[in-house]
Amino acid sequence: MLSLTIPRAALRSATAPRQFAAAATSVRYSSTKSLAEAVGEIVPAKREQLARIKSQYAEAPLGQSNVGHLIGGMRGLKCMLWEGSVLDAESGITFHGKSIPQCQKELPTAKDIGRPGDEMLPESMLWLLLTGKVPTAEEAKGLSQDLMSRAKLPSFVEKVIDTFPKSLHPMTQFSAAVSTLNHDSKFAAAYNAGVKKTEFWQPTLEDTLDLIARLPAIAARIYFNVFGKGDGKQHVDPSMDFAENFSHMLGYGDKEGLTDYLRLYLSVHGDHEGGNVSAHTCHLVGSALSDPYLAYAASLNGLAGPLHGLANQEVLNWILEVQREVGDSPTDQQVTDALWATLKSGRVVPGYGHAVLRQPDPRFTALYGYCDKRAELQSSPTVKLVQRISQLAPPVLKEHGKTKNPFPNVDAASGAPLYTYGLDEFKFYTVLFGVSRAFGALPQLVFDRILGLPIERPKSLSMDALEQLVKK
Predict the structure, then answer these.
(1) Catalytic residue (choose from 291, 354, 361, 448)
(2) Which of 235, 308, 337, 400 is catalytic?
(3) What is the pLDDT of residues 292-346, one digit of tens each?
(4) How much is the CA Rg of the chain, to the nearest whole Å?
(5) What is the value of pTM for the model shown?
(6) What is the spatial distance between Cα 261 and Cα 414, in angstroms, rounded to a whole number?
(7) In whole angstroms, what is the distance from residue 18 CA to residue 218 CA?
(8) How is domain 145-308+428-451 classified at the architecture level of CATH?
(9) Catalytic residue among 271, 291, 411, 448
(10) Which ranges of 132-227 would DSSP assign to H, the alpha helix?
């Protein structure tokens, strides 16, 4: 762990610098390159690109900031570097230039690595986010096996989780457990040993892979302790992929539909550019050179907020409320009346609208499409109601006139399949989101250290100072 009392200079003189080869701890399963080697290949070009931008365009304007930005949460300000994804108001999210439909078509799937299932692997998305390149099936399989080799929780972390009262919210438990993994941080150890700044990214990548690998075991142990599901052992089968092991740990390994849904869910939720609370928090805390465990624990605390990660459970609560009111086979008029009743009561229709998007969320489209492919989901009254509302809500919201974007976002669709498959503990849904968001937020920490980005420190003003400034 990072020492708070021993000066770093003293540590440098006392300990030989710890050098990280590109694939120091990666497990090699084939003749193809490891993820660490693939990331190492892009480092020189990324650093050269940043140097060119700083040299040629440092004074180039990106728009104008105003008082509305300052007091409105900085929404829309172009003031953050984020490599993994870009969110456009009209076209939606792209990952290194690839849309979700392109990712579904191009990224290796479970079937491609010899496992049952048709959806893209979260491991494939992780490779893309870290390298900007689509992995081969062998590279995806090698990364999957590497992650599984790292997935066992240290016994002290298991003991910490087991001391939590069942009444403690699962997200609080999740964040606290992630923080405790800081005990074994390779970045913190390397920093204390005097590793060169140009090599910060290597132990950061090692911590990133260790943490992502262990998140399912943390989540599953919490799920067992709080809800009594799963076997509580978090057994890892090295022949299974990330989501497949996670599904088995949760006690749903016999439900192939849920396992494949988790692959898609984890992949499309992983990254949504850097300005959202959880991603930005990870980047902000990491800019202080906090290790990935501390940075991501802070990220989870942001994700736990009701304006961020709790949205899909709020949607599902509302869907079930409507379902109780209109029944399992409602008419279009009944659903429309329920929408108007919600709006007239002063509430919003949850799952509709987005801070950035002005078109239907491509993540919603992907999850909606998954439901169309599974007979057990198509026979679910809850899933069918979600689909009916997605068709009827936009014209109602347009007529209502108070919604900038009347289209469904990802939260409108994500909870109903989980509920249908029996994973119906709403408090746990944000933990699932927390497992997925690591696939985007943590790779950015690696990029932050590849590029040597500085500590984030925006200028703040008091209201008095602000008024004095604008009156000049």
Answers:
(1) 354
(2) 308
(3) 999 999 999 999 988 888 888 889 999 999 999 999 999 999 999 999 999 999 9
(4) 23
(5) 0.89
(6) 10
(7) 29
(8) Orthogonal Bundle (1.10)
(9) 411
(10) 137-149, 155-163, 170-180, 186-192, 201-227
| Residue 69 appears among annotated catalytic residues | no
* Res 308: pLDDT: 84
Average pLDDT of the residues in 114-141: 97
Q: Which residue has the tokens 């079930």?
A: 320
CA separation for the pair 434, 269 (Å, rounded): 9
Q: Which segments of the chain belong to CATH 1.10.580.10?
A: 145-308+428-451
Residue 24 has pLDDT above 50, yes or no: no
Q: 43-57, 192-206, 275-289, 348-362: which has the minimum mean pLDDT?
A: 348-362
Largest Cα–Cα separation, the chain: 76
CA-angle at 272, arms to 268 and 277, nearest 5°: 125
How far is CA 49 from each of CA 42, 187, 194, 200, 284, rounded to the nearest angstrom?
11, 25, 27, 18, 22
The verdict on whether 354 is a catalytic residue reads yes
β-bridge pairing 98-99 and 85-88: unpaired
What distance lies between CA 205 and its chain's CA centroid?
A: 16
CATH 1.10.230.10 maps onto the chain at: 310-421
CATH of domain 310-421: 1.10.230.10
Q: What are phi and psi of 7, to 5 degrees?
A: -60, 145
Known catalytic membership, residue 308:
yes
